[in-house]
Amino acid sequence: MGSLAVLALMPAKSRAAPRSRDRIMVQGRPQDTGSLYKVRNIIPALDQLGGVRKMRCRDPYSGTPGWNTYVGLAREGVTFCFTLSVRDIARTLSDLRAFLAAAPSSIWAIEFPNEPDLNPVTYKGTKDARLGFRTGNAPAFMAYIGDMATALRSDPILSAIPLIASNDYMQAEQKPYTDFGNTHIYPRPATNVEDRLDVLDRRLAGAGQSHCVITEWGRTTGGGEGNVTSPPVSLEDQRRLLAKDVASVLSRPTVHVLNIYELFSWGGSSEMNNFGLFNADLSPRPAAVALRSLLT
Asked: Which SUPFAM superfamilies is this protein grouped with (predicted)?
């Protein structure tokens, strides 16, 4: 991180220096009950990554089929970063409390809504403009996270859970409500990752944040040059580049946890279906083998 490596102390809720494996999280979709994301598939895959036990997922809804998958994973030792969907705050808190009752100590962080620039927030009769979050014009979003942070921090069961900002934009504005900043990074094949992380550190410092969670980092093997995230790489380059990426990120004290997008590929040749560390037949890709070596 250069001269910005020495920043303020870690947020009070997260002072312990975790092991490398504990700083890695993987993206999953347990709510998609027709997908590969079943307990019987997820736990062996996490074991093949050296015993990773952090996952980033959408917040669970009680009474839905995916609820049992979430609880089953938690009972196998998985702890979650739950990304909030914008719905009734009282209902959200009720579901989070119910989840902890079923699986104590299984929520390690709560993240404010994903990509509110592309998924504008509607709250209390106000709807944000598409891309308004990118320019600081997101009044509905700010009202929602303010009310949600107040509700979480005043709840005797949920108040100790760290809060993560929504990604990339309005980091300074979100700081009063959060414990960690947040970014998404999808490097191009030729990206100088160290330079990119230097930029992240400067942005964190500029926003008054001392630490962040990178809630999405991935390299797809699908799609083409017109991909939304970055151009595709070969399976061998995914292995080589992701291993270097993770080593670089873990060397940065400002990055508390790195989330790898995602655990499973979904088949086919599209961009979004081919970020996975494991193939659609559940066999490990070379990147999974490389990460296990790095983390164990």
From this structure: (Trans)glycosidases
156 CB-contact burial (10 Å; exposed 0-12 / middle 13-18 / buried 19+): exposed
| Cβ atoms 24, 51 nearer than 8 A | no
Question: Tokens in use for 139?
Answer: 């009044």
C-alpha to C-alpha distance for 209 and 202, rounded to whole angstroms: 10
Rg, the chain, Cα only: 18
CATH of the domain at 192: 3.20.20.80
Q: Walk along the chain (296 residues) in steps of 10 and give the mean pLDDT of each run.
A: 32 50 96 92 98 98 95 98 97 98 98 98 98 98 98 98 98 98 97 98 97 98 98 98 98 98 96 98 98 95
Please identify which residue in the block is written with the tokens 């009769």: 125
Using CA of residue 220, residue 221, residue 225, residue 231, what is the dihedral sign? positive
How far is residue 95's CA from residue 97's CA, in Å, rounded to a whole number?
A: 5
Does a structural domain hold residue 6?
no
The model's pTM: 0.93
Is residue 7 in a domain? no
DSSP class of 11: P
- CA dist 276 to 25, 221, 238, 256, 283, Å? 13, 9, 10, 22, 11
Q: How are beta strands 107-111 and 255-260 bridged, if at all? A: unpaired
State the amino acid at position 173 in one-letter form: E
Beta bridge partners of 278: 264, 284
Domain span at residue 145 reads 20-295
Count structural domains, the chain: 1
